[in-house]
Amino acid sequence: METLLIIDYGSQYNQLIARRVREAKVYCEIVPPDYPAADIRRRDVKGLILSGGPSSIYQKFAPKLNPKYLELGIPVLGICYGMQAITDLLKGNVARARDREYGRAQLHILNGSSKLFTAVPKTSVSWMSHGDHVATMPKGFHRTAYTSNTKVAAFEDPERRIYGVQFHPEVKHSEFGARVIENFLFKVCGFGKSWTMENFVHDEVEKIRDRVGDERVILGLSGGVDSSVAAALLSKAIGKQLTCIFVNNGLLRKNEEAQVRKAFAGRTLNLDVVNAEKIFLQKLKGVSDPERKRKIIGHEFIYAFERESKRIKGAKWLAQGTLYPDVIESKSAFGGPSAVIKSHHNVGGLPEKMKLKLVEPLRELFKDEVRELGVKLGLPEALVHRHPFPGPGLAVRVLGEVTKERCDILREADARFIEEIRAAGLYRKIWQAFAVLLPVKSVGVMGDERTYDNVVALRAVTSVDGMTADWFDMPKEVLGKVSNRIINEVKGVNRVVYDVSSKPPATIEWE
After folding, report:
1. What is the pLDDT, as a whole number, of residue 332?
2. Do β-strands 331-332 and 335-337 pair in parallel, antiparallel, or remain unpaired?
3. What angle do CA 350, 371, 380 make, to 5 degrees?
4. Is residue 80 among the annotated active site residues?
5. In the chain, what is the straight-line distance between the N-terminal and C-terminal CA atoms, in Å?
6. Among this protein's residues, is 170 annotated catalytic?
7. Which of 28, 29, 80, 182 is labelled catalytic?
8. Among 29, 156, 170, 511, which one carries the catalytic annotation?
9. What is the spatial distance between Cα 392 and Cα 144, in angstroms, rounded to a whole number?
10. What is the value of pTM for the model shown?
11. Residue 25: Cβ within 10 Å count
């Protein structure tokens, strides 16, 4: 497969670079600075992007550019620190800038014939984040762009197809950044647009069949997006060799089990549903501390999954919905995927004694690509675009002690909240929306009688990746309708409040 490699020097924007490349329908991977040049030669690598990073090129232990990369004869684009690494290797000079440059800057293009800046206006907004700059260009390079604060904002040696930009084209604030990346991919490297879901499905199905052979695979199916898409892909590849274990722990959303059964009813696989509500609630009896809840639920899930998996004769493989960001996050000192991936993160940390081989069919994909794949595999839109749901389920949304009665109240309130934001056409505009049952009661008046019932808090946030979030400005009429329905239809609730906290300082979940 045609591949672009991103050499990871520790930039906070590395995933953005990969996303921009993938959005252009080119396959890419993020690798560490010590990735062997010999491995690059063996693969169909048509270009390298050197990322930015937090180091200064002259710091002790700062990562350097492997000189063998420039001997491969493939195009190279250095971004920020990557540009400085090129300069340092090729005997140019990098110096501390008199004035650091952060944020928006006006980029002025000097060379209208540069392939990198094809169809980019002579002046546009770029995003800067650097304290060092290129003071003297290496021999054979010429300047192609500048800003008021950075004399060499871009340079190139078109004969050797080596390019550098001091700004960050991967960041949305760079007005024509995506075009710069696309110009490098298509006009310099000569990529085709081969990274499509159709190609991925075809290739991954063949890979799974080759690896698994006629052996059996088990997968912990949660009903979330990742495990559901992994199940659908494995089903297409190996059919009845796959057994999905769905543990109903009594802490799920309303009708979750029924929705999972319906979504996979027509697929060739074995669906094993474990009803473990009683034992989970028994273990949680009297427990209010959120960390204790999490540990109890995690441990009990392991036991439930292990008990059930032992009934599946001949299982040799454990499937997980690991995504590419999970792989990237296991890093070396200067970035890049390490050899050790997060252990069984999707199923709560399954014990090593199970001795199952691991298959992770989604490990090359980002979240938006997983959703696209789910649609391509025919999963229901409502499942593919579901909001995130915490591993411990409703236990961390029922504040205080977790009981069946309190879970049932929250399930009903949450269902009405989601129904109304869907009806209002707001569901896809919100990153995550849910109800929380508070550990307090309030006085109310219903039918001329005094009540003393539960309080439900509603939470809805906008976000890109969940790392930061802002509260969603819910229309007043929607909030009014949700509140009215919950109070009138959910027995045991007489007050509804709306959470207007951002993250930080708050978190998205309450526990």
Report:
1. 46
2. antiparallel
3. 95
4. yes
5. 44
6. yes
7. 80
8. 170
9. 53
10. 0.79
11. 15
What's the pLDDT score for residue 485?
97
Q: What length does the chain have?
A: 511
Q: Are 109 and 144 in contact (CB under 8 A)?
A: yes
Weakest-pLDDT range from 172-181, 291-300, 316-325: 316-325
Q: Please confirm, yes or no, whether 168 is among the known catalytic residues.
A: yes
Rounded to the nearest 10 degrees, the angle between the axes of helix 225-238 and helix 197-212 is: 70
| Cβ–Cβ under 8 Å, residues 192 and 141 | no
Express each pLDDT in 360-407 by its tens digit: 999 888 888 999 999 999 999 889 999 988 889 999 999 999 999 999
Check: CB of residue 510 under 8 Å from CB of residue 432: no
Q: What is residue 276's three-state secondary structure?
A: coil
State the catalytic residue, choosing from 130, 133, 168, 344: 168
Render 115-175 in DSSP notation, one character per residue. Answer: GGGTT--SEEEEEEEEEEEEEEPPTT-EEEEE-SS-S-SEEEETTTTEEEESS-TTSTTST
**Range with the poorest average pLDDT among 200-214, 273-287, 348-362, 388-402:** 348-362
Q: Tens digits of per-residue pLDDT, 446-504?
A: 776 778 899 999 999 998 767 788 999 999 999 999 999 999 999 999 999 999 999 98
Q: What is the pLDDT of residue 326?
A: 75
The closest alpha carbon to 172, from 125, 129, 108, belongs to 125
pLDDT of residue 408: 97
Q: Torsions phi, psi of 399, nearest 5?
A: -75, 135
Q: Which amino acid is at 263?
A: A
d(CA 221, CA 319): 10
CA angle, 57 as apex, 55 and 58 as ends, to 5°? Answer: 110
